[in-house]
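dumping this here before i forget
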Amino acid sequence: SALFASHFRKVDVDANARVSPMGDTALARSWGEVLKHVGQTKVALFEDPSAATSLGGEDEFVHLCCQNPPVLVAGQAASGIEDEAMLRFAVARALYLARPESILVAGLETERFTEILDATLLAFHPRHAKRKSSARGSDSPTAKLAQEFSRKLPIRVSRQIGSAFKDAADESFDTRAYRSHLERVGNRVGLAMAGDLEPALRVITGNGTPAELSDAIASSEQARELVAFALSDVYVEVRRSMGLRVVAKS
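structure:
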């Protein structure tokens, strides 16, 4: 992670804007509630709308910043919100996506992720051996990054990566499908923490009135999938495993 992190954009956030899980704001209480179920984490949450705007996340409740360690930045949409179910959903979803196996896809711009993935394949995938040979001495960013990975990673780790690629050499991988999968699971994790479907849907769709929300759900695959999950036995069991329960609103 340290090797990858040197190629990530460092986020400039106000250190004083760090959210304490022991704080008394709605965002702090929501953060504390999520951490109560997740446990200790190296991921920090900051309430810094200006930083979120500079990162292109002004419309997001919580922006995930891909760096080492990861940083979550609550943007303008989360400022002043008192609905803790909405905030728990947004924070828990972002925290799930900050895991090592998902942060590169969820936290990087598509172009940057593609470059890192291409360099990784070039450096370690057996089917790219000829391409690797022809790329030696090249000045292309991908070739330079691949050479850096090959040179700086420990031999044991390089062999493990190469072996994993060899074992799965004939398997296909679609980054768009993987990104879509992560979004679905992240939404489910968020809903499990929020415990209320309507606020979660408002975060996803950005809509307020019931009529607007209904129209947004009809046109949003993410929203429809989350509604289906909320009606499933799996959701009930997840909430029960957390020591919580599901009740019907009158």
